[in-house]
């Protein structure tokens, strides 16, 4: 059901959900729970499986760590304290709450983004972005990135395969294969640089191929049909729910 | 005396279930030069990737007397099988020609003087010694091809395995590459679509189609069996 919904509706609702989540003040936990209920019900409706979405959401975990200093920089009731060298670190309850609410917000937003990406074919998503007036150049960049990311991954795989094929042991017994970590790091760095140069060259060739077919900086696309009444209804109800939650967040 | 390459009933399917090799068996004697022919998608490249354990299928592969399925043998085998990929851009992943040719011996942990000697020898063998400090990114395809071959020669391999060595070369670069391969005393297995190369260089040829070996024999006999060649989408050289 979620899969067949028009990409424009899904895109707008996902953006709306993420905005609502980020505009909700940090300590309004009941609203977070309601938002979680909303996203969970969409996850159930999408038939992707909640575990599938949550496993993918783990990817966002390292970025949450960026908010960790809040634990120590917010002043308030002391939770625990310790000394690190000459630094005196003091964690506060208020800091913990802010950190937890940022973690919660990012977890909710990431789930919405994952749902959107897994239920919508990427070309439809691009068309939806163009339809809601996201700058065309930006959409074109997203499109090219998506198209060539796979090419680049393939290229990296082939480079690594070529390296594996030449990573060998000598018949002279006294030597140690692999040399040392600094040398291996230098080789890997060279490979990364190589990949960058090739991506650069390829972008030139792609641009020339685009010019050869009449590209003038403007990307044209076939217009989409207008939203049906039913789709408008889904969009309106979705926005009303989000608006309600946001009002609740500020009234509480 | 061991056989350079022994493959016994090798079967392989890609993870998506697409079968690539179906019961392939062959033996290549030391010093033999063998061409591997077949249409695109016949399984030639897949077979080649089995020779140094990058892919492993069901069946038995032994290279220079070592069993490829034993993980402990893999690093020795990779030194003995010089595998040159089709695109020299994949083969050359370092900033300069020196770095690339030195990669194999450096990885083995050889002392620097020996590494330098190997690099000099390998570049001499492909007549590219003047290019030692060049940036591989800027070379022509023919030059890259030669450097790619020297990157495996520096490991002193016993078997040279090439994937489409003449693809994309102009006639002069192609001719000089053929002369180069002709001079080298190594065991060779070369996958190619270039029938002139097969006629000039390889006394024995193996034809593959749809993952199977459909013919294996003397080039001078197989190459003029037009019915057989046409059946597998190939052409005799004119």
List the helices and strands and how they pair.
The complex is a heterodimer of chains A (252) and B (238).
Chain A: H1 7-23, H2 29-46, H3 50-57, H4 61-64, H5 70-73, E1 78-84, E2 87-92, H6 93-119, H7 122-131, H8 136-165, H9 181-212, H10 229-251
Antiparallel strand pairs in A: 1-2
Chain B: E1 5-13, E2 19-28, E3 33-37, H1 44-50, E4 58-63, E5 66-67, H2 74-80, E6 81-84, H3 88-91, H4 97-108, H5 112-125, H6 141-153, E7 159-163, H7 171-183, E8 187-191, H8 195-201, E9 204-209, E10 212-218, H9 219-222, H10 226-231
Parallel strand pairs in B: 3-8, 3-9, 6-7, 7-8
Antiparallel strand pairs in B: 1-2, 1-4, 4-5, 9-10
Explain this structure.
- The complex is a heterodimer of chains A (252) and B (238).
- Chain A has 252 residues and is mainly α.
- Chain A folds into two domains: 7-133 and 226-251, no CATH class; 136-166 and 184-212, no CATH class.
- Chain A contains ten helices and two strands; from the N terminus they run αααααββααααα.
- Chain A has helices at residues 7-23, 29-46, 50-57, 61-64, 70-73, 93-119, 122-131, 136-165, 181-212, 229-251, and strands spanning 78-84, 87-92.
- A two-stranded antiparallel ribbon of chain A has the order 1-2.
- The radius of gyration of chain A is 25 Å and the shape is flat.
- Chain A starts with 6 loop residues before the first helix and ends with a helix.
- The model of chain A has no long low-confidence stretch (mean pLDDT 85).
- Chain B has 238 residues and is of the alpha/beta class.
- In chain B, strand 7 (159-163), helix 7 (171-183) and strand 8 form a beta-alpha-beta unit.
- In chain B, helix 4 (97-108) runs parallel beside helix 6 (141-153).
- The relative contact order of chain B is 0.18.
- The A-B interface holds A 155, 158-159, 161-172, 175-179, 183, 187, 190-191, 193-194, 197-198 and B 49, 52, 54, 75-80, 83, 85, 87, 89-95, 99, 103-110, 137, 151-152, 155.
């Amino acid at each position: 059901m979620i899969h067949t919904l028009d990409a424009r509706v899904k895109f707008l609702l996902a953006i709306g959900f993420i905005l609502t989540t980020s505009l909700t003040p940090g300590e309004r936990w009941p609203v977070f729970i309601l938002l979680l209920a909303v996203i969970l019900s969409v996850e159930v409706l999408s038939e992707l499986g909640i575990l599938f979405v949550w496993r993918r959401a783990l990817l966002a975990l390292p970025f949450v760590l960026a908010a960790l200093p809040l634990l120590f920089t917010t002043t308030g009731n002391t939770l625990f304290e310790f000394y690190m060298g000459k630094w005196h670190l003091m964690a506060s309850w208020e800091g913990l709450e802010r950190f937890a609410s940022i973690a919660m917000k990012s977890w909710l937003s990431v789930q919405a983004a994952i749902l959107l990406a897994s239920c919508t074919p990427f070309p439809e998503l691009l068309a939806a972005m163009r339809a809601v007036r996201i700058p065309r150049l930006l959409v074109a960049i997203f499109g090219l990135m998506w198209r060539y990311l796979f090419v680049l991954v393939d290229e990296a795989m082939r480079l690594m395969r070529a390296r594996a094929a030449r990573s060998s042991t000598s018949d002279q017994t006294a030597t140690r294969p692999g040399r040392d970590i600094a040398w291996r790091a230098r080789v890997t760095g060279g490979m990364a640089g190589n990949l960058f140069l090739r991506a650069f060259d390829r972008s030139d060739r792609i641009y020339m191929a685009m010019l050869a077919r009449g590209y003038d900086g403007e990307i044209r696309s076939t217009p989409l049909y207008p939203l049906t009444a039913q789709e408008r209804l889904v969009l309106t109800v979705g926005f009303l729910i989000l608006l309600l939650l946001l009002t609740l967040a500020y009234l509480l | 005396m061991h056989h350079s390459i022994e493959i016994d009933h090798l079967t392989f399917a890609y993870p998506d279930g697409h079968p690539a090799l179906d019961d392939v068996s062959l033996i290549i004697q030391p010093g033999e030069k063998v061409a591997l022919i077949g249409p695109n998608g016949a399984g030639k490249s897949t077979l080649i990737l089995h020779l140094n354990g990058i892919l492993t299928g069901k069946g038995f592969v032994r290279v220079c007397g070592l069993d490829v399925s034993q993980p402990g043998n893999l690093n020795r085998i990779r030194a003995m099988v010089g595998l040159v990929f089709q695109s020299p851009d994949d083969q050359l992943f370092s900033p300069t020609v020196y770095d690339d040719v030195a990669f194999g011996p450096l990885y083995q942990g050889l002392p620097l003087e020996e590494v330098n000697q190997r690099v000099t020898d390998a570049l001499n063998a492909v007549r590219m010694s003047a290019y030692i400090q060049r940036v591989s990114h800027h070379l022509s395809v023919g030059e890259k091809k030669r450097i790619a071959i020297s990157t495996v020669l520096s490991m002193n391999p016993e078997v040279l395995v090439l994937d489409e060595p003449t693809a994309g070369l102009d006639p002069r670069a192609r001719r000089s590459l053929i002369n180069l391969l002709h001079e080298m005393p190594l065991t060779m297995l070369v996958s190619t679509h270039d029938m002139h190369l097969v006629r000039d260089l390889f006394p024995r040829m193996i034809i593959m189609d749809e993952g199977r070996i459909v013919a294996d024999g003397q080039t001078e006999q197989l190459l003029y069996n037009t019915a057989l060649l046409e059946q597998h989408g190939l052409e005799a050289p004119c």
